[in-house]
């Protein structure tokens, strides 16, 4: 707890931040999440601010963040090409942009019907690339407003289009409205990488 408290903050602009959402939400819904967020691009500017414990965290998370960013750049190239604006249209903006890593812990919840890990939202990013330990992510079906569970496939990354790409594509690509459901049996861990074209 001592080490966690070093990073505890409500300041969303801190480059490394630990926090919880274990509190009452609106409409009597509980939010049930513990998180660590930190900037990750350019890696050399931020990695020394990350937690030192566990000992291999900086090395392993740095490699993961770098690899996920490469994937995001490849996806960006394909999407801008599909929009007819050329594969390199966003290259400079992506290089100057941000990457934020969010490591989320959703503890087992005694009354999951009264709580959410995260409320419904879309991400303010170009992409969110997600790795999760177990099922819990739900996306909203835009046709009828119902929630659909996203299956967890072993070692698979999930890619969400964010608000930036929805605007850039003039709505052709849609930001994914999603939430996190909880369960009574197990803790769920996720690592979300938010790739943005604009610096925060």
From TrEMBL:
Record protein name field: Fe2OG dioxygenase domain-containing protein
InterPro entries linked: IPNS-like_FE2OG_OXY, IPNS-like_sf, Oxoglu/Fe-dep_dioxygenase_dom, Plant_2OG-oxidoreductases
All residue ranges annotated as the Fe2OG dioxygenase domain in the record: 94-197
GO molecular function: metal ion binding; oxidoreductase activity
Iron listed as a keyword: yes
Keyword S-adenosyl-L-methionine assigned: no
Transmembrane segments: none
Keywords: Iron, Metal-binding, Oxidoreductase
Entry's family note: Belongs to the iron/ascorbate-dependent oxidoreductase family.
């Amino acid at each position: 707890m001592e080490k966690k408290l070093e990073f505890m903050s409500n300041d969303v602009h801190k480059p490394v931040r630990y926090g919880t959402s274990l509190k009452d939400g609106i409409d009597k819904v509980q939010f049930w999440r513990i998180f660590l967020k930190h900037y990750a691009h350019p890696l050399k500017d931020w990695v020394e601010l990350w937690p030192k414990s566990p000992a291999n965290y900086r090395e392993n998370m740095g490699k993961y963040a770098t690899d996920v960013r490469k994937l995001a750049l490849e996806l960006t190239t394909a999407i801008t090409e599909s929009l007819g604006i050329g594969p390199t249209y966003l290259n400079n903006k992506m290089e100057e942009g941000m990457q934020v890593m969010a490591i989320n812990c959703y503890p087992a919840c005694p009354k999951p019907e009264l709580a959410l890990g995260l409320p419904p939202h879309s991400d303010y990013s170009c992409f969110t690339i997600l790795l999760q330990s177990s099922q819990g992510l739900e996306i909203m079906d835009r046709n009828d407003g119902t929630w659909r569970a996203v299956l967890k496939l072993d070692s698979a990354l999930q890619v969400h289009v964010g608000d930036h790409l929805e605007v850039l594509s003039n709505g052709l690509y849609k930001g994914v409205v999603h939430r996190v459901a909880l369960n009574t049996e197990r803790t769920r861990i996720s690592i979300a990488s938010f790739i943005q074209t604009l610096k925060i």
